[in-house]
Amino acid sequence: MNSHVSRKLIGVLLLLAVGAGAGCGRLAGGKDEAAKDKEPPPVPVEVAAIETGAIQEVISSTARLEAEADVKVFARTANRVVELLAEEGDKIGKDQVLLRLEDDIQTTRQAKAETALAKLRAEFERLEALYAQKLVSEQVYSDTKFELRQLELSLEDAERELEYTRVRAPIAGTVTQRLVKTGDLVNVGQHLFDLVDFDSLVARVYVPDRNLPSLATNQVVRVRPTALGQQAYEGYVKRIAPTVDARTGTVKVTVGFRDIGPLRPGMYVEVELVTAVHPDALLLSKRSLVYDQDLRFVYRLKEDRTVERVAVKVRLEDDFNVEPDGGFTAGDRIVVAGQTGLKDGAKVRLPGDPEPDADGGSGPRPEAANVAEQGSPDEGQG
Question: What residues make up the domain containing 375?
Answer without folding.
Answer: 1-26+365-382
